[in-house]
Write a structure and sequence with these properties.
Strand content: 15-25%
Number of helices: 15
CATH superfamily of the largest domain: Leucine Dehydrogenase, chain A, domain 1
Largest sheet: 7 strands, mixed
CATH topology of the largest domain: Rossmann fold
CATH architecture of the largest domain: 3-Layer(aba) Sandwich
Bound molecules: nicotinamide-adenine-dinucleotide
Length: 433
């Protein structure tokens, strides 16, 4: 029987209201579309639509002035426990809620399976604006949040990593808090740690490096050289910054960049050394001498060959999808494109490298970090980068082959590969009891 016939006409009930959010609806709609298309077993399909575990905490957070104690909310969601420990970032952002974190955890599951990593998906976060916090406040918040979720994390259980608004220092505080409470050093509880406490060479730039590896492969398929392309990147943080520097180093022209303060544009190409010097001095991109100011929305519509959303979700929508002027969209951020925008891009013939493939370099080197920690045997930066590029190229080729074989776009193909691997693992393990 053909896969399309097996699931013809099937729909599932909406998931529980607990998870409801625009992002979770997007993640579930993507899963439903692919499940229908591939004829996924309905029992497994239903299991995959909601996370296996979700923890919501509220805790007191003392500000520096010693008088204010705020109540803040934190989350840790583990989508799938069948593949090994769960793995996923921790974000500090005002938009964090259960529905958002749940959607991100589901995408982590597909991403790990697509890359062949022995993890299920997880994600977490705290609803705060990290830019408003002093270093001491950030440290107190992180340590208290770690204590709150200590029973659900651990090297064999669930391993957090950096994401929006968190970095290697935050990971170091989590590792220290966890280790203090366990009574011995447990570096494997987080990845994305500083090198001095068991971090991996190359982890910081890994997501950006993986994004560029996808660009190189996509350019090869399109018959263009990366050095002949103009690139626009939204978000100049860990991921966008590394992608910009590596692509510029390979000869591409970076014509637009942005951060939360706004965007900058320079048709002849931005000098990345000047950009780094400017942001180190001022803390933002706006006002870089020799560049023209653009808004974050205008930035997305600049003429370019490759557009890279590397900031937050929901940036490419029905409203602007028709105005994009790129040939290739590389999703470095998680969930930057809505379902409606996705359809418009497919109709317009704009190739999209989906988030679960494009930004998988981070979790891949997190896996290398975890492996190196378990073996207490550390690799050189060159070894890390070469192995990362090899795995990114392999995943890219598998997605391309699947897309051609099934006549589907790259997102559908990537999800088919990830979901198929997860479904097979669940089928083999069976149901307890
Ligand atoms: P980051 O906090 O280091 O950087 C985020 C950047 O986006 C900053 O330049 C910030 O100013 C900008 N930004 C924030 N809000 C914005 C807004 N409303 N409009 C425009 N720009 C805005 O975060 P990051 O780690 O680089 O993560 C960026 C994206 O990549 C996120 O979607 C994250 O989930 C995804 N991601 C990160 C990793 C990782 O290893 N860090 C891995 C996979 C995916």
């Amino acid at each position: 029987m053909d896969a399309d016939d097996r699931n013809a006409g099937k729909t599932l009930e909406p998931t529980g209201l607990e998870w409801d959010s625009p992002m979770h609806r997007l993640a579930v709609a993507q899963l439903d579309g692919v499940a229908l298309r591939m004829g996924l077993d309905q029992n497994i399909w239903e299991r995959l639509r909601t996370p296996q575990r979700a923890m919501v905490v509220s805790f007191p957070f003392r500000r520096d002035n010693y008088e204010t104690v705020e109540t803040v909310y934190g989350y840790r969601v583990q989508h799938l426990l069948s593949m090994g420990p769960t793995k996923g970032g921790l974000r500090y952002d005002l938009d964090v809620d259960l529905g958002e974190v749940t959607a991100l955890a589901m995408w982590m599951t597909w991403k790990c399976a697509l890359m062949g990593l022995p993890f299920g998906g997880a994600k977490g976060g705290v609803r705060v604006n990290p830019r408003e916090l002093s270093r001491q406040e950030l440290q107190r918040l992180t340590r208290r949040f770690t204590s709150e979720i200590i029973d659900v994390i651990g090297p064999e259980r669930d391993i957090p990593a950096p994401d929006l608004g968190t970095d290697e220092q935050v990971m170091a505080w989590i590792m220290d808090t966890y280790s203090q409470q366990r009574g011995h050093s447990v570096p494997g509880v987080v990845t994305g740690k500083p090198i001095e406490i068991g971090g991996s060479q190359g982890r910081k730039e890994a997501t950006g490096r993986g994004v560029v590896a996808c660009m190189v492969e996509a350019c090869r398929e399109m018959g263009v050289a990366l050095e002949d392309t103009r690139i626009v990147i939204q978000g100049f943080g860990n991921v966008g910054g590394a992608a910009a520097r590596i692509a510029a180093h390979l000869g591409a022209r970076i014509v637009g960049l942005s951060d939360i303060s706004g965007g900058i544009h320079c048709e002849s190409g931005l000098d990345m050394h000047a950009v780094d010097a400017w942001t180190a001095e001022t803390g933002h991109l706006a006002g870089l001498p020799g560049s023209e100011a653009v808004s974050n929305q205008e930035l997305l519509e600049l003429p370019c060959d490759i557009l890279v959303p590397a900031a937050i979700q929901n940036q490419i929508t029905e409203q602007n999808a028709n105005a994009l002027q790129c040939r290739l969209l590389v999703e470095a951020a998680n969930g930057p494109t809505t379902l409606e925008a996705d359809r418009i891009l497919v109709d317009r013939g704009i190739t999209c490298i989906p988030d679960i493939l494009a930004n998988a370099g981070g979790v891949t080197v997190s896996y290398f970090e975890w492996l190196q920690g378990v073996q207490q045997f550390f690799w050189s930066e060159e070894e890390v980068n070469n192995r990362l590029i090899e795995l990114m190229q392999r995943a890219f080729r598998e997605v391309s082959t699947m897309a051609r074989a099934k006549g589907v776009d790259a997102r559908t193909a990537a999800m088919m590969l990830g979901i198929h691997r997860v479904a097979e693992a669940k089928r083999r393990r069976g149901v307890f009891p």
